[in-house]
Amino acid sequence: MQIPFSSSTTSSLGIEWELQLVDLRTRQLRGDGSLILKELQAKVGEREAAKAKHELFESTIEVITGVCGSVGEATADLAGTVSLVRDLAERRGIGLMCSGTHPISDYNHQQITEDSRYSRLVSQMQWLARRLLIFGVHVHVGVRSADKAMPIVNALMAYIPHFLALSASSPYWLGAETGLASSRSQVFASLPTAGLPYPLEDWPGFESFMETLVTSGTIETIREVWWDIRPHPNFGTVELRICDGLPTLMEVGAVAALAQCLVDRMNTQIDRGYRLPKPQRWLVQENKWRAARYGLDAQIMVDGRGAVRPLRDDLVDLVEDLHPVARRLGCAQELSDVLVILETGASYARQRAVAQRADGDLLQVVDTLLAEMNSGCPAVEQ
Q: How many angstroms separate the Cα of 226 from the Cα of each of 189, 191, 339?
């Protein structure tokens, strides 16, 4: 099975941001997605409206960028689309927000979008699909050739806990405290073709594995492989799908900058003849769990002998190490915002702080998430 790869000449960038439609009166999710998208198309035309699209549930709209050269260009692109969607949503008494899960809404009460792809997914996966009331941020970074795609995917696996901890924003599920920083990551990993990528050696190995999955009936198309990190042949990118939904544009930019810098450096290292490291899958699995459980306070394993290090320290060193790349790519400020997240706390910690001050009232958590989306920056108690 040959899978053409549309190589990117630069470390271009694309971002997908899954937004929740929240009734401003009840603070529950509301399924007006198709109506808002129809109004958007009538307002701005089909081409511009294509930057917002359906998701599995009618209470979700995903906004997507075009192909961007920088993080600043990508976040400005997102901001423009969000502004259009927000205007239409607010006319209906709906606010926009993003977090890995909605703190109080129940998937049993959500309407699934009418689409043959989603119908097939629910038919095949049943309860696993019906409970996918989860929200994420996906970052695409351009890769210069197919033979680089799998080595970069493999090497990026070492940073799965870093991306997950920075973005972790789903401590609540169906109105209850889960004890996890990211419950979304655990819900999504239940799908048989989701979770950690298989460490395939090269592009022919990827093609062979996809052929096996299609031939066996496991998937119909390679779009149904939802790994935490995966190659995207049509776009010519590596796509990081591990992140929980991020509440603010600032945090989206920080995660995008980290992704772009890492992939760009790996592209260059391969060009110079360097063989990228491939972490052991069991070690990545353990570190992913630690990030899902403890967020930025995780102690991650750094070798096969059991040595550990604070994830926070690893992120500080990583940001410093990548700053020369970030300056060249024009995203030094956005990369530095990773350190701001370390200082202010990731969303899971901010949500818990609000709930604690409100004696467990999760409606106030929803209100804070709505306010953060509108302001574009994390809300920090003074």
A: 9, 8, 29
- How far, in Å, CA of 164 to CA of 182, rounded? 8
DSSP string, 52-64: EEE-SBTTEEEEE
For the chain, which domains are there?
13-375 (3.30.590.20)
Q: Which long-range contacts (CB under 8 A, 24 or more apart) does 88-92 make?
A: 88/36, 88/39, 88/40, 88/43, 89/21, 89/32, 89/36, 92/32, 92/35, 92/36
Number of residues that make up the chain: 382
Q: Please give the C-alpha separations between residue 109 and each of 30, 33, 114, in angstroms, as whole numbers.
A: 10, 15, 16
Summarised one tens digit per residue, pLDDT across range 280-314 is 999 999 999 999 999 999 999 998 898 999 999 99
Of 87, 114, 86, 118, the closest CA to residue 20 belongs to: 86
The CB density around residue 317, as the number of other CB atoms within 10 Å, is: 11
Query: Tokens 């096996």 identify what position?
Result: 212
pLDDT tens for each residue of 147-185: 999 999 999 999 999 999 999 999 999 999 999 999 999
pTM for the structure as a whole = 0.97
